[in-house]
Structures are given as structure tokens and as C-alpha cells.
Amino acid sequence: MDSKTKIVVLHTKELIYTAVFALLCILLIVLLFVMFGPGHTDKKQTAHKQYTPGTYTSTLTLNNTNLEVEVSVDSSRINSIRFANLDETVTTMFPLIQPAIEEIADQIYDTQSLDAVELSDDAPYTSQIILNAIRQAVEKAAVNKTAASCISLIVFYPSTIR
């Protein structure tokens, strides 16, 4: 007989290492596809809202003092957030109110969204009240899509006089 028999020796330890390495490579490829695939969109692109340009106010009450939060918007961006009537008495009674609105405003300018705002650990209650007042002012500025997309047609019928 001329056939030569070959014997192959496989070590189980090497097979296990090879299988684990192959699974990790496949997992990495799937993870990269999910993270950077065609369905991935940036939050800043999806958070594009439409507003009626102008300056809108909302009132918030702190210790029997009414403060007006003023939000200025153009057609697609929130441009300015500030207190309209903040005086020394209020800043003395609430020293964290001005830094809180500045921190919230900076976050809103960056993301153009009220949902991604992280409240301050120093004054969470005050920050939440300010955020609610900003949300009310932005809701006043938001374009009502159903009203904006409706086109009113008025049809005049000639009246018949007999």
C-alpha cells in the first residue's frame, strides 16, 4: 500500500483560545457596525425644532418675589436665557440663582434641548424651578405644527336670488 496516513494532533487549549479570539473579533465588528452604522444620527441633528422668533417670558415665584425668565429664540435656535428683573435683594436671598441659570443656559445653548439638562448638585430645587420656567417660555415659542401646516380655504358660493 502506497497511501500515507497522516495523523493530526489538536490541542484543546489552543482550540479554546482560537475560538475565544474569533468570538471577540466578531463581537468587535458587530459593535463597530452598530455604533457607526448608517442608522446612527447625532442628537444635535435630531433636536431641530422650529420656533416663532421673538422674546418670550415666564414668571417664577421665589419667596413671594416674582422673577421673569426671558428666553429669546430665532426660527430654529434658543439664543438667550436670562432673568428680566433680577435685583440685589433676590441675589442676596438666593445667591445660587444666577449661577444656576447660567449653567442651565450654557447646557441648553450647547444641546438646543431641554431634555438633556443636568441639574446642579448645589441647588437642585432652584435649578428645577428655573428649568420649568424656561420650559414654559420655550413652549410659548414653539411652532404648532398642526396649525402651521393647515391651509385654510374659504370657498365662496354665489348666492342665488330668486
Automatic annotation (TrEMBL):
It comes from the Bacteria. Keywords: Membrane, Transmembrane, Transmembrane helix. The chain crosses the membrane at residues 15-36. This is FMN-binding domain-containing protein.
